[in-house]
Amino acid sequence: MQSLLCDASDQLNRDRAGRTVSLSLGPSPAFENTLMRLTAFLAALLTALLAHAEGFQGWYQNTLWLRLNERWSVGNYSDLRVNDAISEVHTWMISPRVSFDLDKTWQLQLNTTFVEAYNADETLRPDWFRIEFEANPTVPLNESFIFRMRNRFEWRWRDGDADYGFRIRVRPQIDWVLRKEGLFRGFYANNEVFYDFDADRFTENRLIPFGVILRPHPSVDLRVYYLWRHTRGLTEWRDYDVLGAIATISF
Where are the beta strands (DSSP E) in the chain? Predict the structure, then answer.
């Protein structure tokens, strides 16, 4: 990897929370050719997966962040999930949130989320209200790779019930940063696991084996991805193939 980045110079890459990560970038032409072949192979693989999909959805997500000072930010997350990418709305959610940078590694976050979504068996479409707490680390592994993890604890109320459910979600992620400027910046992958304490079982797995990091504007982080969703109903597991995009806009 060092030989492929021989023309690199130290740069600073700032994420939306204001933390800085030192990077040394500048891939060679040989590396770019290899990258193009890898992209073509993954595109062919995704096409084959979609052709055998049990269910297909498009996910369109957006997060807005406003930095108040060196530690505090406020924002809002919105999410629209559509069957067959353009037909019936499967899920929508709105989530105001606030974050606090504890230090250079850890960030704490509190969200209030309003959701309307089909259940895993697609027999009901209840409303949910969630209170979510997150404790999320970001750790640079070297000059090109960044490890991130989202650890979320959720308290969930369904259709105004007095009782609530509790679950956790853990999502490790790797960012592979290849460029310091321009539209294309690199790739990423993550895997999220859900555990429901009331049902005492794992209820969902969301795997992004391949995502692309784009920067169309200095304030906009755009990620386009393929996601495999494996979710458990009352008696069986269901699978979805997802093509999605999430835009994070920071002010």
Answer: 9-14, 20-25, 56-67, 72-83, 89-101, 106-117, 127-140, 145-158, 165-177, 184-196, 201-217, 220-232, 237-250
CA distances from residue 73 to 40, 60, 223, 247 in whole angstroms, order as listed: 38, 23, 21, 17
Quote the pTM value: 0.80
Here the contacts of 94-100 (C-beta below 8 Å, separation 24 or greater) are 95/132, 98/72, 98/73, 98/74, 99/17, 99/65, 99/72, 99/73, 99/74, 99/75, 100/71, 100/72
Residue 9 has pLDDT above 50, yes or no: no
Is residue 237 within 8 A of residue 230, CB to CB? The reply is yes
114 is written with which tokens?
């309003």
- 15 by Cβ neighbours in 10 Å (0-12 / 13-18 / 19+) ranks as middle
188-193, long-range: CB < 8 A, 24+ apart = 188/212, 188/213, 188/223, 188/225, 190/148, 192/150, 193/169
Closest C-alpha among 202, 203, 172 to residue 189: 172
- Residue 226 is encoded by which pair of tokens? 């393929």
Residue 16 confidence (pLDDT) above 80? no
Q: What is the DSSP letter of 30?
A: H
| All domains of the chain in start order, with CATH | 3-250 (2.40.160)
d(C-alpha 126, C-alpha 232), whole Å: 17
CA separation (Å) from 97 to 93, 103, 138? 13, 19, 19
Question: Residue 20 and residue 16: Cα distance in Å, rounded?
Answer: 10
Q: Compute the average pLDDT of residues 102-122.
A: 93
Tokens of 44: 């062919």
